[in-house]
TrEMBL record:
The chain crosses the membrane at residues 20-40, 60-86, 107-131, 143-164, 173-196, 216-233, 245-262, 268-292. GO terms for cellular component: plasma membrane. Keywords: Membrane, Transmembrane, Transmembrane helix. This is ABC transporter permease. The keyword Membrane applies. Pfam families: ABC2_membrane_2 (PF12679). GO terms for molecular function: ABC-type transporter activity.
């Protein structure tokens, strides 16, 4: 099987620079420091006479996992938002489009190149994450699932960056638009519910009786299924033996534990969320390929 030419070229460019090794060292140094400080705090508690709580030792996987999730949500959009817009600024995009490489292959090559950088960082941190294996409760199955979820989130947020990188001509504009949309997806889908409930309570407030009504969102809470951070939260909760985001549905949306949406969130949230986000990523990639296609909007002459 022949490698994507864009991917091969990007990998060669990255291999010839010292930026990636420096980032790799700094990234793992930060993770190592976090792990050492966490272990030191546990040891200090033990020396002070407090018993060791093994549930606290398992939190090291959660802390390091969230650090990597934040890395993916910030690093991948920056890499992909500058991918096509950067080629336009260097005036090399037109040269790419004159080759036999299809627009979608160009987009896919840029995305995979960005994800290769992230995968190298994430895989290099596996020995640090494996510290949690020493205390039990974690397995290689959890580790493989963790890597899959992180990569899927990277593909989703990266596709948004590529879409806007193809849509606009300037890299700073593409980065701003990418993070604006990600802010709506990550923060907006969560903040919408308490804001809507607060407005509804204000409108229905009875000053005479001093009572108010609260909204029952029910299946509307599925709006958060496109949120990659909520997906990661559900995965980390279930990896720790909890029930995931369903545990928050009563306090967030007033959903009873006997309802269908609660059962759905408990058993199917990760699978459905992954499928929807990968599907949306494919649509963003197809949209990006459409915008860089020099033949878009042109009909063939008979």
């Amino acid at each position: 099987m022949q490698m994507n030419p864009i991917l091969r070229n990007e990998l060669k460019l990255h291999a010839r620079t010292v930026r990636l090794p420096i980032i790799l060292v700094i990234y793992n140094l930060v993770l190592s420091c976090v792990a050492v400080l966490f272990m030191a705090s546990i040891q200090n508690q033990y020396q002070s006479g407090y018993p060791i709580q093994y549930d606290e030792l398992m939190e090291i996987f959660t802390i390091l996992g969230w650090i990597q999730c934040v890395l993916v949500c910030f690093m991948v959009p920056i890499l992909t938002a500058s991918a096509i817009a950067g080629e336009r600024e260097k005036q090399t995009l037109d040269i790419m489009l004159t080759t036999s490489i299809s627009p979608f292959s160009i987009i896919l090559g840029k995305l995979v190149a960005a994800m290769c950088t992230v995968c190298i960082l994430v895989l290099s941190s596996v020995p640090i994450l494996s510290i949690s294996f020493l205390f039990g409760g974690m397995s290689w199955k959890d580790m493989i699932a963790f890597l899959f979820v992180v990569i899927a989130i990277g593909v989703f947020v990266g596709s948004i960056g590529l879409f806007f990188s193809s849509l606009v001509k300037k890299t700073p504009v593409a980065i701003v638009l990418t993070f604006l949309v990600l802010g709506i997806v990550i923060i907006g889908t969560v903040a919408f519910f308490p804001i809507a409930n607060a407005i509804y309570e204000t409108i229905t407030y009875d000053r005479i009786e001093g009572t108010m009504k609260s909204l029952e969102f029910g299946w509307a809470s599925l709006l958060m299924i496109v949120n990659p951070v909520v997906l990661f939260l559900d995965f980390m909760e279930k990896s720790s033996g909890r029930i995931g985001v369903a545990n928050y549905f009563n306090s967030w949306f007033g959903v009873a534990s006997s309802s269908d949406i609660y059962t759905f969130a408990e058993h199917w949230w990760i699978v459905v969320s992954l499928l929807i986000q990968i599907g949306l990523a494919l649509l963003f990639l197809m949209g990006a390929a459409f915008f860089i296609n020099p033949l878009k909007g042109k009909k063939r002459k008979k």
